[in-house]
Design a protein that fits this description.
Length: 279
């Protein structure tokens, strides 16, 4: 019996996550990143894949297609994402946001010509960013271990389970192979990576340890998304406040991690966690 693409992706994700958890049991004492040895190996794999294949293809895509065409492609896939965003907002009990998301789909699929034009944003319907990992977080499920999944990039244990549901529910994965499914999936990945090319230099210049920079930025951004920008203070933050005045008096600069530039370190599909706001 032939294995479908969604089934293969789900099996790969589960296998990688399980291997990571087992490998990490004896590799790190860092509570934030208990499987750091495994994660750094997977991060290096993703970086190599990105440098050798994904980034060059995305750069060529950007060079060949004019900006209005790339914007239309971004809007088309963003319109499909709004369906699942609406479902997750509904599961989180955010009815008005869910109604807005489905309204975006209705407007952009019709007046916006299958989503090629983001008419809904111009009409005042805000673009949201929700997925099953965030929904689990809103339900009280903890992060679990931080894990870097090949191709998909940074995740947590909770977000890895959410990723499986994201893939299973993705309308594109249910398109028949003969109907251009694989082409659409590759096009989406390449387009997403091309949208992130401007952030590459920011990451390279800002990060002394790129792995740690990406990890901390990802965890910070996910925490912010789950709490819709109003995340409660973490327990360790109180202890940090005691030392900050001392460092300030000594003229020490406070390190700052930008959550907006975490995706470029992960090739292809990880970019799906960073919905574009292009119109």
């Amino acid at each position: 019996m032939k294995t479908t693409l969604p089934a293969r992706i789900k099996s790969l994700t589960l296998a990688i996550a399980a291997a990571g958890f087992l490998a990490g049991c004896a590799t790190s004492g860092n509570p934030k990143d208990p499987i750091e040895g495994f994660n750094r190996a997977m991060f290096a794999f993703n970086e190599g894949l990105d440098s050798a294949i994904v980034r060059p293809v995305a750069s060529g895509y950007e060079a060949v297609l004019p900006s209005p065409v790339r914007t239309g492609v971004t809007n088309f896939f963003s319109n499909i994402e709004d369906l699942l965003i609406g479902v997750n907002n509904l599961l989180q009990g955010k009815g008005s946001e869910a109604f807005s998301d489905l309204g975006r789909v209705a407007i952009n699929s019709t007046i916006g010509l299958l989503g090629l034009f983001d008419i809904a944003s111009d009409a005042g319907l805000e673009k949201h960013d929700e997925d099953f990992g965030q929904t689990f977080g809103r339900w009280g499920v903890g992060n679990g271990a931080y894990v870097v999944v090949p191709v998909f990039g940074p995740r947590t244990a909770r977000d890895t389970v959410g990723l499986i549901l994201d893939v299973a529910a993705d309308p594109l994965t249910h398109v028949g192979a003969g109907d251009g499914r694989d082409v659409l999936l590759v096009l989406r990945g390449v387009n997403d990576r091309a949208n992130l090319l401007p952030a590459d230099r920011v990451v390279e210049e800002a990060a002394l340890d790129k792995y740690s920079y990406i990890r901390d930025g990802y965890l910070q951004r996910r925490r912010n998304l789950i709490h819709d920008g109003n995340a409660p203070r973490e327990p360790e933050a109180d202890a940090e406040q005691v030392e900050r005045p001392v460092r300030a008096e000594a003229g020490a600069a406070e390190p700052r991690v930008s959550a907006e530039v975490t995706a470029p370190a992960s090739p292809v599909l990880v970019a799906r966690t960073e919905p574009a706001a292009a119109k």
